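Supplementary Note 3. Input sequence used for the single-chain structure prediction.
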Amino acid sequence: MPLAREIRAPWRRPRTCIWEITAACNLSCLHCDNHRLRPEAGELTTEHAFRVAESLGRLGCDVVDLTGGEPLLRRDWDAIARHVTDLGMEVALITNGTLLDDQALERALEAGVGRIAISIDGLSAVHDRIRRALPGAIGAGASAWTLGMAGLDRALRRVPVVVITQVNRLNLGELPALGRLLGDRGVRQWQLQLVIPSLRLQELDPPFALAADHLEALTDFILRSRSDPALPHIDASDTIGYYTEREVAVRWRSQGPGLWLGCVAGTRVVAIKYDGKVRGCSLLPPEFDAGDLHSESLETIWADEQRFAYTTRFDPKNLTGRCARCDFGPVCRAGCRTMAYALTGTIYDNPCCLLRHRRARA
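The predicted structure, written as discrete structure tokens, is reproduced below.
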């Protein structure tokens, strides 16, 4: 059976939804193009958000990640979370942690939030260099590191917590120290993901995003961490890999070994942008918009597989460059779609690949 037909099998459903409930954020981060202190036009009303949550329930969603922007800047964030949990889905709150005071944490618990993910991008100096408060924002003038770590410590006492780190050239060398610090704080789960090199980041001098020759060092660290009980368990994101002899160990999850089998955007994952646009992945650019919740229901958008054709209609013949010549191409499908598109302008060729890097060195 052709691979494209397998992807259109009956199991296709949005098990995870990444939902940006607002564009507003109190921080300006180097790796993020969203520097908006206020909500943007087109954000869904509370009532509309409730209807979208009900659509997710009917589509069989299991987990909803509420993010932003900074989700805690939306006044009704906990009402949305409560509605989602009342519908039987798990809610994970993804936050920069700076606004996670006692009141916000209590609201999260009362809304049934099951996990909180907090972004920590390095030790204090590096974190504060990457994440800075916008003028006029809550916490302006304070250390984002100090506020974020206070939010982390507060959450750790009450709810399961995941730390998310955007790996880049500034923090790659201090990952071992950061891991030990997080482990000492009681963090048990740590997600590492590569910074996506947007055009703005590619123009920075000195460079910010990792280069291919950094991938081996990052992989070394992940594998060393597997035998170090002082470090949290590392979940390697979809941006890291692929297909060396270390693949299974790199992708080892708490439930057992893993293996990269291609992007699941539009098959197991759906993303809702702050303005109601729907995509398979929240990091994909607007060229990949599948629909608009202001004019259609989520069920209508999701039911049209052609709108997510980059996954549901994938054809290995579309692979280009070295991905077209790779034996793993039909399964790997050029790794992370967003990374490939940022680096090459196509989702069918991805230079950010450990196997490719090794072959280029050979």
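The longest strand covers residues 161-167. The mean pLDDT is 92.
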